[in-house]
Amino acid sequence: MTIPLVDLKAQYATIKPEIDAAMARVVTNTAFILGKEVAEFEKNFAAFCRAQHCVGADSGTAALHLALLICGVKPGDEVITTTHTFIATAEVISLIGARPVFVDIDPRTYNLDPNLIERAITPRTRAIIPVHLYGQPAEMDPILEIARQHNLRVIEDAAQAHGAEYRGKRAGSMGDVACFSFYPGKNLGAYGDAGALVTNNQELADNARTLRDHGRRSKYEHFITGYGYRLDALQAAILGAKLPHLDAWNARRRAIADRYTELLTNLDIVTPYVPPHITPIYHIYCIRHNNRDGLLKHLKAQGIEAGIHYPIPLHLQPVYQNLGYQVGAFPQTEKAANEILSLPIYPEMTDAQVEQVVDAVRTFK
Ligand SMILES: *Cc1c(COP(=O)(O)O)cnc(C)c1O
User: Fold this and answer.
1) In the chain, which segments carry CATH 3.40.640.10?
2) In the sheet that 99-103 helps form, which strands lie side by side, from edge to edge?
3) Which residues does residue 154 pair with via DSSP β-bridges, in sequence order?
4) Is the Cβ atom of 156 under 6 angstroms away from ligand 1?
5) Are 235 and 192 in contact (CB under 8 A)?
6) Which of 63, 175, 178, 214 is most exposed by smallest CB count within 10 Å?
């Protein structure tokens, strides 16, 4: 029996009546753009994050782009972020004509190392984007303190961290703005592209709302040059049906992760490190092995789908050669990129499947 990295069919099977009813409601009402479904989901998702405002968008990338715009990032500015993330985190900085300034990770958590931020700050720095990678919040207190001292905005990339907690605070409630992705494979996934921006600042929320809908605040009046970044009502209804399950799904992911960690101890494997003040949601269960490529091949042969998040650091991506970073610039990320491997994890995974994965890992020589 093969085991996929994620199994969206298994999840649909557990919530089919709720999803089908939500979709039928939207189709029957034919209110497809914004409207009540979107407003309702925004209210509930803000509450889930324990934040004041949520503005739906048509992807996590769009939400990140809006976040930079409302934070006043302009062409020629610099934005500090981690080199160990999905391309979208940095792509939106480039899209604005600003410059991504990368920093290395803490090799234990894979998140941006706060000790490396200050030396990356210049007079052009406007914002920091910490990524809560794999569903584990970045070390926010020192990041927020540095931002306060240097008058920088903090934009949380919480695309992998819906419901994760840092010192009892939820991802999305700590920075000036936070961005979420509801890409289908994320812990809260739509049935297509969707995303959201979350903030405690009314003015930033209002500006994001205007920008995502062609710069308008009423039907026919356009105040600024905006974008077509609206969240679909169909996606909002699906997300709304799934949201009440999310805490339980995240708890099940944690139980699976704990079981993996217990069973994989005493092998040549580095299991995830979770500081005591953090509650992760394991979007990814990431292990390290010094023969990663061999292990990956072995797992594949046993029918286990594993992944690599991410094999090429952003500073070494072809698209970023113009930034002038060399191999060796960020040694912790470069080493991790060669050693990390993501094991299958999803809430519907059975204990037997977890053991099957562990057995496959154990037989690797
Ligand atoms: C998924 C993801 C995004 C982008 O989200 P989309 O909804 O696919 O646009 C951004 N940052 C990170 C870290 C992600 O994992």
Assistant:
1) 8-103+113-244
2) 53-57, 195-199, 177-181, 153-157, 125-129, 78-82, 99-103
3) 128
4) no
5) yes
6) 214
Number of the ligand 1 atom closest to the C-alpha atom of 63: 9
Tell the residue nearest (CA) to atom 5 of ligand 1: 60
pLDDT in tens, 63-121: 999 999 999 999 999 999 999 999 999 999 999 999 999 999 999 999 999 999 999 99
Give yes or no for residue 181 CB within 6 A of ligand 1: yes
| Architecture label for domain 245-362 | Alpha-Beta Complex (3.90)
Which part of the chain is CATH 3.90.1150.10? 245-362
Q: What is the mean pLDDT of the chain?
A: 97
160 lines ligand 1 (CB under 6 A): yes
- Report which of 104, 174, 112, 173 is spatially closest to residue 139, judged by C-alpha positions: 112
Which token pair is 153? 């905005």
pLDDT-based confidence at residue 327 (cuts at 50, 70, 90): very high
With beta carbons less than 8 A apart as the criterion, state whether 164 and 122 touch.
no
Residue partners of 49: CB distance under 8 A and separation at least 6: 162, 170, 171, 172, 173, 178, 198
> 86 CB under 6 A from ligand 1?
yes
Q: What is the pTM of this model?
A: 0.98
Atom nearest to 195 CA in ligand 1: 7
What sign results for the dihedral spanned by CA atoms 80, 86, 89, 92? positive
The CATH fold of domain 8-103+113-244: Aspartate Aminotransferase; domain 2 (3.40.640)
Check if 58 has its Cβ closer than 6 Å to any atom of ligand 1: no
Tell whether the model's pLDDT for residue 365 goes beyond 90: no
